[in-house]
Specification:
With about 325 residues, the protein is mostly helical. Helices cover about 75% and strands about 5% of the residues. The chain starts with 10 loop residues before the first strand and ends with a helix. Putative odorant or sperm cell receptor.
Amino acid sequence: MGTHNQTWVREFILLGLSSDWDTQICLFVLFSITYMVTVLGNFLIVLLIRLDSRLHTPMYFFLTNLSLVDVSYATSIVPQMLVHFLAKCKVISYVSCAAQLFFSLGLGGIEFVLLAVMAYDRYVAVCDPLRYLVIMHVGLCTRLAITCWVSGSINSLMQTAITFQLPMCTNNFVDHISCEILAVIRLACVDTTSNEVAIMVSSIVLLMIPFCLVLLSYIKIISTILKIQSTEGRKKAFQTCASHLTVVVLCYGMTIFTYIQPDSSPSVLQEKLISVFYAILMPVLNPVIYSIRNKEVKGAWQKLLGQLSGLMSKLAS
């Protein structure tokens, strides 16, 4: 293709979820409320873990990281999307688009690896409880967390660099809610086979390998739980994993169900719905799941609320 048909665009126009004004207003209200609940819920989880010494354990250290990832991921997409719901022209600059792709892609990768690390933590807690604190010491937990953040960031940096070095066609309309990598690549004027291979490789490294590690961990966990003779013991062992397992099923399940299809690749609508799921629903569901399904977190909430109630009573008297 001749170079006269190729150009470096300065801005993109995001088509979003809908062009109907009334629908956009409804989505603006709904997503605004959800985003505020996401930020507040995850902030409260982090605050609770910091304030309650009983939650200063490896599991809640990783949960703190998960909450930070969730809030950051939502923030990389939702505020811009809310602004565009109220704008006639949904323009995003070239640099802002690249930054959004980098942060959303990086944080998504970090979350998948982090869930695998949390699965290993639950494996040690159930399968080797007597040595749990010896194995999951502060140094190891810190190194594992750093590995999650670094691996996701490096992958994102590489993917963003090779995506935005592509010459774009004069059509700068991105049919998505954000600068999602597949949507941006579709605008390229050159063969993108190498980019698609790179995406496939990174998906294997940051999605399928962590998923296999999670699967292996839970096979070991379930095998150990089934060997426990008392019903109460099995119930207690399962409860230590219930919250994490729920999040894993939701997080990995949506991606694997959508992308691993024998007949075709996911449609543009499916890609948009996946982005909405991870940017809007998952960040708000995680603190709810860990609060409802976890006795330690509920106990910490009750303790904190009791202290606040006592403080208010003293101030009122």
